[in-house]
Design goal:
2 domains; Serine Threonine Protein Phosphatase 5, Tetratricopeptide repeat; DNA Cyclobutane Dipyrimidine Photolyase, subunit A, domain 3; mainly alpha; 362 residues
């Protein structure tokens, strides 16, 4: 993706100087875009809309149609016109862009939108053109450099010109076979808490409940909470695909499928990402505040009450040792696992087995 991103930056002259070099002397500022959100930082009020859909809701309930998610209001909060989409873009530029890059990976229970643009629905439904959004961000940053750093603008543009376009290209290059890939032979069914958010894992409960309420979760919630859990637990990628496609307002197959089956579940064996995005509870604790109020102890990796992400992470490494042997990006965790004695490995495996056998009760 990095080489793809650089090529498109050059082709479209985005954030480039007159000598064909990246502004700021760097292609990306990813290292400055991974901050947790301090409690003292206030979160902007999300801009929502009020498209009346009460007639549709009445029809659904009258015919007793089963649906995914919660209908708690009679208005659709997402933009449904180009005018509304441009309004949301302008709101992002003025209110959220100044701190977007810095906190784009942060997670918190204090809000559901944070500094994210939530323009993906407008982009994927073609109410906005991706280059239109990219140029708007670039221009707004250039005019407001005293309050917006280059890292904020680049971090956002990379999500569209880099990742979104990369995913689109890979989808068309590898379909239709891509949708059937299952390199890790994952076969477990989705636990019931994916449908109601009823789990004692604080991070998963929040991410799922937010998704049910707003048809939205930002990329780290999707990748490192629900996606990470599905990966570690070996959930069937077909079921995971269907869940993501059904629950999110911006999920259209070309963008959802590669992100879920490839980036999140590593079911493609490394076509999209060079390593599986697997993480223990330590990452979740670092980037969010969930662990402070969770039923499970993030500092424990074995035994009753230990964070499920911990034992499941090491069990995941153990299950797929042969596949990861040739992956240099997995060398460190694999080396750590191999260095453990059998006496140390046994309780981890036992704890993971207990959790995997009782997924619906977590």
């Amino acid at each position: 993706m990095e080489f793809f991103y650089r090529a498109l930056r050059k082709k479209h002259h985005v954030l480039m100087d007159t000598n064909g070099k990246p502004l700021g002397g760097r292609w990306n500022f990813d290292g400055e875009n991974r901050n947790a959100l301090p409690d003292k930082v206030s979160i902007p009020q999300p801009l929502v809309f009020s498209e009346d859909v009460s007639e549709i809701i009445d029809r659904i309930e009258r015919h007793k149609i089963k649906y995914l998610g919660n209908i708690s209001h009679s208005c659709l909060i997402w933009p449904t016109t180009r005018q509304a989409s441009r309004h949301l873009l302008n709101h992002f530029l003025k209110v959220c862009l100044p701190q977007f890059g810095q906190y784009q990976d942060a997670m918190t229970e204090r809000g559901w939108s944070l500094f994210h643009s939530r323009l993906s629905f407008s982009l994927n439904s073609k109410m906005l053109h991706p280059m239109e959004v990219i140029r708007a961000v670039e221009s707004y940053w250039q005019a407001n450099q005293e309050t917006i750093s280059l890292a904020q603008a680049e971090g956002f543009i990379r999500q569209i010109l880099g990742w979104r376009e990369y995913v689109r290209a890979l989808y068309w290059a590898h379909m239709p076979n891509y949708q059937h890939l299952n390199t890790l032979s994952a076969e477990r069914a989705l636990p019931k808490f994916f449908w109601d958010g009823d789990t004692k894992m604080s991070c998963v409960a929040h991410a799922v409940q937010q998704s049910l309420d707003y048809a939205y979760a930002h990329h780290i919630q999707r990748l490192m909470i629900t996606g990470n859990f599905a990966l570690l637990a070996g959930l069937d990628p077909d079921e995971v695909d269907r869940w993501y496609l059904g629950i999110y307002v911006d999920a259209i197959e070309w963008v959802e499928l590669p992100n879920t089956r490839g980036m999140s579940q590593f079911a493609d064996g490394g076509i999209i990402a060079s390593k599986p995005y697997a993480a223990s509870g330590n990452y979740i604790q670092k980037m969010g505040r969930y662990c402070k109020t969770c039923h499970y102890d993030v500092k424990q990796r074995t035994g009753e009450g230990s964070c499920p992400f911990n034992s499941l992470y090491w069990d995941f490494i153990d299950r797929h040792q042969s596949l990861f042997e040739s992956n240099p990006r997995m060398a460190f965790p694999l080396k750590h696992w191999k260095a453990l004695s059998d006496d140390d490995k046994a309780p981890i495996r036992n704890t993971a087995k207990h959790y995997l056998d009782n997924l619906d009760k977590l």
